[in-house]
Write a structure and sequence with these properties.
Keywords: Acyltransferase, Sporulation, Transferase. The protein has 245 residues and is an alpha+beta fold. The protein is built from seven helices and 15 strands.
């Protein structure tokens, strides 16, 4: 359900809204779900709809970019924009425009390799850049470090539940992973559409395909299958929305 300034938004309330037809299915889904989404204004709600669709598009762009999966110790990036720390973090170089550096990841993907949590943060930055434009992005994110779930000023939260929406980050857990291949203890993914996910390092797959891939990296004698956790990680839109103004 959607609550705007304390008022419940009903299906009949949006019948005359003039919005991009691509946003309608997501808007209706948010209205009909038992999960509560709170906004201060309709503009805030529209920001979330556009951002979610841009998360989906950014995930697809990263998939096509040629950027590779790598463990932290094997992380690398385009040295024109990024330096790699001893821990395997990509740190934005001094005075480099954040928008150009983030966009370079999909424009010159073969120059990059990082692990799946880092990929999610990259996707969030790409989606925000597309949503708010270069000027506001550069002002809001003047210092970027890409490393695991290190996300500087991005307001990100995770909550339990079984209802998932386009642009959500979900997690497939592999409880009996091979200790020699600990990077496959699980996989962060972006929900692109019903039962279709982008998993950095694996590709665009359905849930069973991701589970099968993770199961192939279990320890010897493992009996428990990988599975999708009942939780979703999302950007906190009310906290993020002020940077658009």
């Amino acid at each position: 359900m959607i609550i705007i300034s304390g008022q419940w938004l009903r299906p009949q309330d949006i019948e005359n809204w003039q919005i991009d037809k691509n946003l309608n299915p997501l808007l209706k889904e948010l209205i009909e779900t038992p999960v509560q989404f709170d906004y201060h204004s309709i503009a805030e709600l529209m920001f979330e709809l556009h951002l979610r669709m841009n998360i989906v598009e950014s995930a697809k762009a990263l998939h096509k970019s040629g950027a590779k999966f790598a463990t932290f110790v094997k992380t690398y990036g385009n040295t024109a924009y990024w330096r790699v720390s001893p821990e395997g973090a990509l740190e934005l170089k001094y005075k480099m425009p954040p928008s150009k550096a983030i966009r370079d990841i999909v424009e010159n993907g073969p120059f990059y390799a990082f692990e799946c949590a880092t990929a999610i943060v990259v996707i969030y930055y790409l989606a925000l850049l597309k949503t708010i434009g270069e000027e506001k992005f550069d002002a809001a994110f003047d210092r970027i470090i890409l490393y695991d779930w290190h996300y500087e000023k991005l307001p990100i939260y995770t909550e339990t539940g079984h209802h998932f929406f386009l642009g959500d980050c979900l997690y497939f857990k592999n409880p009996e992973f091979d200790p020699q291949k600990a990077q496959w203890r699980g996989e962060n993914v972006i929900l692109l559409e019903k039962d279709k996910y982008f998993a950095h390092g694996l590709g665009i797959l359905n849930a069973q395909q991701i589970i099968d891939k993770l199961n192939s990296f279990r320890r010897k004698g493992a009996v428990q299958s990988a599975y999708l956790l009942s939780q979703a990680t999302r950007l906190d839109i009310p906290s993020l929305y002020p940077i658009t103004r």
